Amino acid sequence: MEYFPLLELPEEIQALVVERVARNSFQDLYGLKASSKSMKALAERRGVYYFYNVLSVPWGLNMPSQLLKSCYAEVNPSTLYIKGVQFYFTFGLQEEGISLMKRAADAGYERAVYTHAITQAIFLCDGQYFHGIPREWVQRIGKLVRSVKWGWGLWHSDEFRQNRAMFISKFVLSFYRCQCATHEWRQCLCLWHLDMTKDDNMCERCFWIKEIGTFLRGFEPISVIRDTRKW
What we know:
The chain is mainly alpha-helical. Helices cover about 55% and strands about 0% of the residues. It has 11 helices and no strands.
């Protein structure tokens, strides 16, 4: 197998390669650091911490707290997102939490774009942040956001549960009654079957009922075992 001569590239190009690797995979970054002294030096620059995606590592693993702090100090979008989610949904610091999520979203962090937009829609009745975003993107990132299991038994706040109950009573029946797509009628008007009831031809309104419902069903608050207030 012929290897690409990375070390023969100009240093600024090598630095860009390191940043891209840091964004995609911790494992590959550590492999790159081990490949040569020059790669190790580039990978250990403080600016590289900005590009880490700390959620590329399963949240249950014991990631060093100093690494998270270093990433946050460099305004790393994934740590802004994590802190924003914990502030908003765990600590009830809603103004600070939504601001942190928006900063991460403005930096292009996809999970933050989704979570900030859906939080605005559910809790602040502001649906503008999803305007123009393709359904396929919303479905893909929504599944990614809901897949993170970081609650470790923590319950949602009273406000979250109240919004969920209100959403079920106000919208779920109309979702099943709408004849916009091939669907299966459910006797239990709850959130458990929303994503398995209609095909992809559903109308725009039913699509957003389904997306918001699956968020309210599957999204977890972040456990206080890792307290981002210490970052």
